[in-house]
């Protein structure tokens, strides 16, 4: 059985939009914990597999440069997520009725309702990432199949079956 890392990447990313969907649909603390854990697991998997997938897709000659470009997206994505989340939060606070505020001086919002639209946006962005990884898998699968067929024919011709 051959190993297609881009396929495993797609499988791992399936949980990310599901986690954001859980955050949108439920206001229970256990669901919040489970969804946060799923997002953390998916993010960790992305960081850990980025090195091998980058070197497989672009070659090992310039893997350092390519990997640095890929890794640069982590802080850029964090900035984008944080900034859009804060913009949506501030917009939500500005729409709060005076009676819904904590006190007359505070403009603080607590709970899922404050981040509802943020979770929807992040879930949509995660879904786009999932769709992109599936397209990457479909595009690279024939190359992996050809490579593994060549490797299989080399092993049978040399007698190395272990």
Key terms:
single chain; 162 residues; mainly alpha; 5 helices
| CA gyration radius, whole angstroms | 22 Å
Main sheet attributes: strand count, strand direction, barrel closure: none
Poorly predicted sequence stretches spanning 5 or more consecutive residues: none
- Structure summary, number of beta strands: 0
* Individual helix count: 5
Structure in words:
This protein has 162 residues and is mainly α. Helices cover 80% and strands 0% of the residues. The protein is built from five helices and no strands. Helix 4 runs antiparallel to helix 5. 12% of the residues are buried.
Summarize the structure.
By secondary structure, this protein is mostly helical. It is built from 5 helices and no strands.
């Amino acid at each position: 059985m051959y190993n297609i890392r881009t396929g495993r990447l797609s499988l791992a990313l399936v949980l990310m939009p599901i986690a954001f969907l859980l955050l949108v649909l439920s206001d229970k603390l256990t669901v919040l914990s489970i969804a946060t854990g799923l997002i953390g697991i998916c993010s960790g998997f992305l960081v850990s597999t980025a090195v091998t997938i980058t070197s497989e897709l672009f070659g090992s000659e310039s893997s350092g440069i390519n990997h640095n470009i890929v890794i640069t997206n982590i802080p850029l994505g964090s900035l984008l997520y944080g900034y859009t989340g804060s913009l949506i939060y501030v917009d939500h606070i500005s729409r709060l009725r005076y009676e819904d505020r904590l006190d007359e001086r505070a403009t603080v919002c607590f709970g899922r309702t404050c981040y509802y639209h943020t979770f929807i946006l992040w879930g949509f962005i995660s879904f786009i990432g999932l769709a992109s990884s599936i397209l990457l898998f479909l595009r690279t699968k024939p190359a992996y199949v050809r490579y593994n067929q060549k490797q299989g024919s080399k092993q049978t011709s040399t007698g190395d079956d272990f």
